[in-house]
Design a protein that fits this description.
The chain contains 13 helices and 35 strands. The protein is of the alpha/beta class.
Length: 552
């Protein structure tokens, strides 16, 4: 069966008609888009066009009956989890032109699962097997794929030869979260040939005490890649968040662990001074009563903003910790004069009385704001109040967008009223945040994937009347949501959208909903009853998935 599908800017975005057993992609699209054929179990064989240079993330994931696919010469990149769950793929011939393979690209395929020795392909290591706790990557290897050491919990020595250029995202991570901790691996040597290290490449390596990397390599990789590779922490299981965060490299360094960082010392200091880092780090140190680490973190700062410092003092006051408060007060007194503190107090009083209209500079003390061409974009919350409003305009600038991950992990903000005329709530915008309630404007038409995933405090959300799409895992693990009335006009609810919302008792679905194709949209919502019109798609869905149904 030949196939064209929906193409935009050279990207084959999705199927139009459900493909048959054999799929021949005859279009000259250069990219197979993310999730383009995800979960299409009718597929058994795929023939890619010679023009394909990239296969996107999750492009064929979950195609359980797929047994055969060609990888054309000229293919440069395979995205993360691109073929994950394609259980019947046993033979793979990767081209020499391949430059990057995303993490867990072939996870749960027979090709990987049935391997009984180290698996290399096209110069990449995809699966490693230890000998006496040691592993030496073969000479001539170009890269290591994310998850390659997933089953190697007893690794105590890893040799990466010169010539390796690519270390993928989460090479030690488990696809189900952090997985085992590699607490025997104490040293890692990064050769100068490395040009890419993926996000959380060494996540789970909780015993690393010596990292050998040259200044030239650090400079070539850049600050952002260094931060994502060495200083990040993957927290898939929210109950383990504090434990995983405590064992991350920055926290271990602040706690005084004897770690030889070589050329990573300066990048770590830069990381500790970033607003995003401080917004997560300082509340954690105060909440977990870590005075030694708090002192070390303050020493790494040049000069904290006074209002931010006052936020931390308030947290220490609530914690009723005299020691933590004294440490913060000492820092405040050493950095700020009496006049500076008096001026700040006067400005706070003026704002409280409504005497002063907020300027762009004032708003930037509440939100991270970028402006361009008369428009404002919000990319984070830096305020210290639990309630906030995103207005239609900031100064003379119209607020048009919230950036992806803008409020990700924020533990200060509990209640948010969005008055700006946004068209979408982007992916991961509020993931793992402390939101309790949110009101979105009626201009919003879509909620992105994982937008509210892990918001375990979320109780109330006012949805847009014009909402049409709820993305993948948008509200997964929102364990305090009890009821939802989804607006008339909603058409699509993607997979895992409300999975693990254990307190969810009632969802009202309109008859405009026509797509919930996977069946796991309300997975593990054991107390749920769906309310919807008689004869609607929602009624059929409820019956097919054994969910109690009440006709409206």
């Amino acid at each position: 069966m030949s196939y064209v599908g929906e193409i935009k800017d050279g990207v084959l975005k999705r199927y139009v008609d459900a493909p048959g057993a054999k799929l021949k992609i005859s279009t000259k699209a250069t990219v197979i888009g993310p999730s383009a054929f995800k979960g299409k179990n009718s597929l058994r064989e795929v023939v890619l066009h010679d023009s394909v240079t990239e296969i996107g993330s999750n492009a064929f994931s979950g195609c359980e009956n797929l047994t055969k696919i060609n990888f054309p010469e000229g293919l440069r990149e395979i995205g993360e989890q691109a073929f994950m769950g394609c259980k019947n793929i046993r033979e793979v011939q990767l081209p020499s032109t391949l430059e990057k393979i995303g993490g867990f690209a072939f996870s749960d395929t027979a090709w990987l699962k049935e391997a009984d020795e180290n698996l290399y392909a096209a110069g990449f290591l995809l699966r490693a097997f230890l000998q006496d706790g040691e592993f030496e990557i073969a000479p001539g290897t170009r890269g290591v794929v994310g998850g390659a050491f997933e089953g190697c919990a007893n690794l105590n020595k890893l040799t990466i030869p010169e010539g390796v250029t690519f270390l993928g995202d989460g090479i030690f991570r488990s696809r189900y979260g952090n997985g085992p901790e590699w607490d025997k691996l104490e040293e890692i040597v990064i050769p100068d040939s490395v040009t890419y290290i993926g996000a959380e490449a060494f996540s789970g390596c909780t015993a690393l005490c010596r990292i050998i990397i040259s200044e030239e390599t650090v400079k070539r990789l850049g600050q952002r890649m260094i931060e994502r590779a060495f200083f990040g922490v993957s927290v898939m299981d929210y109950r383990r968040a504090a434990e995983a965060y405590r064992k991350s490299l920055p926290l271990r360094a602040l706690q005084g662990d004897p770690i030889e960082l070589s050329a990573l010392r300066e990048p770590l200091d830069v990381f500790l001074r970033k607003k995003d880092t401080r917004a997560e780090l300082f509340p954690f140190l105060i909440e977990n009563d870590m005075p030694h680490s708090l002192t070390a973190a303050l020493k790494a700062q040049k000069k904290l903003p006074l209002d931010e410092l006052e936020t931390y003092l308030d947290l220490a006051e609530k914690k009723q910790s005299v020691e933590l408060k004294a440490i913060l007060m000492d820092y405040q007194n050493s950095k700020f004069t009496v006049k500076e503190k008096e001026k700040k107090a006067r400005e706070d009083d003026e704002k409280a009385l409504g005497m002063k209209e907020l300027s762009l500079a004032d708003w930037r003390k509440i939100f991270k704001v970028a402006v361009k061409d008369g428009k404002a974009t919000i990319s984070g919350y830096v305020g210290n109040e639990p309630e906030a409003t995103i207005p239609e305009t900031i100064g003379k600038y119209i607020v048009t967008e919230i950036k992806e991950r803008a409020f990700s992990g924020n533990k200060t903000l509990n209640h948010l009223d969005i008055q700006a005329k946004l068209k979408t709530i982007p992916q991961k915008a509020f993931e793992r945040s402390a939101l309790v309630s949110l009101k979105m404007p009626d201009s919003v038409k879509s909620i992105g994937s994982e937008a509210f995933v892990g918001c375990t405090n979320l109780e109330t959300i006012h949805l847009s009347k014009k909402l049409q799409t709820i993305g993948f895992a948008a509200f997964r693990h929102c364990s305090n949501l009890q009821s939802l009335s989804l607006p008339n006009g909603l058409k699509t609810i993607h997979s895992w959208a409300f999975a693990y919302c254990g307190a969810l008792k009632r969802v009202d679905l309109p008859d405009t909903v026509v797509e919930m194709t996977v069946g796991n949209e309300f997975f593990f919502c054991e107390n749920l009853t769906i309310h919807a019109p008689v004869g609607s798609y929602a009624e059929q869905y409820a019956k097919e998935n054994n969910i109690p149904f009440v006709a409206e």
